[in-house]
Amino acid sequence: MKRKPDLLWILVILFGLGVVTTGYAQGLWSGKKDLPVEIVQQQPQQSTLFKR
Fold first, then answer.
1. Where are the alpha helices (DSSP H) in the chain?
2. pTM
3. Rounded distance between C-alpha atoms, residue 20 and residue 28, angstroms
4. Per residue in 1-52, pLDDT tens?
5. Angle at the Cα of 17 (from 14 to 22), degrees rounded to 5?
6. Rounded to an integer, what is the distance from CA 17 to the centroid of its chain?
7. What are phi and psi of 35, to 5 degrees?
8. In the structure, how many helices (H) and strands (E) does the chain have?
9. CA quadruple 14, 20, 22, 26: dihedral, nearest 10
10. For 49, what's the count of Cα atoms within 13 Å in the CB-facing half-sphere?
């Protein structure tokens, strides 16, 4: 008869997967900071609806 895995081991495995996934995601996120960022300011558009 096979023994079911304890709830503690299931939680440990899920926690480990969460730590690995978070580390991987942060690694991807921090790698994108090296890319050049172009800042473009838009000119305010004037509305012609209320002009006479």
1. 7-31
2. 0.48
3. 12
4. 677 779 999 999 999 999 999 999 988 887 765 556 677 777 666 666 665 5
5. 125
6. 16
7. -75, 145
8. 1, 0
9. 180
10. 2
